[in-house]
Amino acid sequence: MNQDISVRFVGSAGDGLVSLGWLFAKIIKKHNLNLVGFRSYQSVIRGGYNEYQLRFSDEKVYSVGEEADIIVLLNKQVASLHLPRVNENAKIVYDQDYVDLDELGYPSDIIEKLPIPMKELAKQVSKLSVIKNIVVFGALGHILGLDTELIKEVLEEQFGYKGKELVEVNFKALDLGIEFAKNNNWEKVSKKLKFEKGKQMVITGNEALALGLLTGGLKYYSGYPMTPATSIIHFLTRYLPKLGIIVKQTEDEIAAAGMAVGASYCGARAATGTSGGGFALMTEIVGMASIQEVPLVIINSMRAGPSTGMATKTEQADLFQAYGASQGDFPKIIIAPNDIEDAFNVGIESLELAEKYQMVVIVLMDLYLSEGIATVRKLNLKYKTKRYGILDKVDDDYLRYKITESGISPRTLPGTPKGMHFTGSSERNEKGFSIASTLAGLPETLPIRNAMVEKRARKLKQVAKEIPEPIFEGDKDADITLVSWGSTLNIVREARINLEEEGIKANHLHIKYILPFQKEKVKEILENAKEVLIIEQNFSGQMQRYICMQTAFDIKHHLRRYDGELIVPSQIVEKVKEIVKND
Amino acid sequence: MTERKYKADDYKSDFRPTWCPGCGNFAQWRAIRAALAELEIPPENVVLASGIGCSSHMPNFLNVYGMQTVHGRGIPVATGVRLANPKLTVLVYGGDGDIYGIGGNHFLHACRRNVDIITIVSNNFIYGLTTGQASPTSPVGTLTKTTPRGSIENPLNPVSLAISAGATFVARGFSGDAKHLQYIFKEAIQHRGFAFVDVFSPCITFNKNQTFDFFRARIYKIEETEHDKEDFHAALDLANQRFVRDHLPIGIFYQIENKTTYEERDFALNQGYIPAHEELGLSDEQIEIITKEFY
Ligand SMILES: Cc1ncc(C[n+]2csc(CCOP(=O)(O)OP(=O)(O)O)c2C)c(N)n1
Ligand code: SF4
Question: Where is the Thiamine pyrophosphate enzyme TPP-binding domain (chain B) (predicted)?
Answer without folding.
Answer: 52-199
